[in-house]
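Weekly modeling sync, notes
Attendees: S.R. (lead), two postdocs, one rotation student

Agenda item 3: backlog of single-chain predictions. S.R. asked that every request posted to the team notebook include the full sequence so nobody has to chase files. The rotation student volunteered to paste the first one in as an example of the format we agreed on. Action items at the bottom.

Example entry:
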Amino acid sequence: MDPGCRHLDQIRDVTPSAAGCEDCLAIGAAWVHLRMCLSCGHAGCCDDSPNRHATRHFEAKLHPLIRSLEPDEDWGWCYVDQVGVGL
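Predicted structure, as returned to the notebook:
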């Protein structure tokens, strides 16, 4: 467990809500990389994407943890504690 993150108890067994960024798909926008909320499974785009839907989801729902949905990437991030988390 990562001692820098105080929210690991909020990780749930979730699956991605969409095959891409859920919000970009709804508005016909493009994204760069995908992230998944570890509280509810919301699939959102990264901060390098124009709409930053993963961060916007955090700001709206206060779900603190995401993980990368990119192939061969196995990392997570805690928005609240601003630290990476091992998964």
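Discussion: group reviewed the output briefly. The mean pLDDT is 95.
Action items: rotation student to repeat for the remaining queue; S.R. to check formatting next week.
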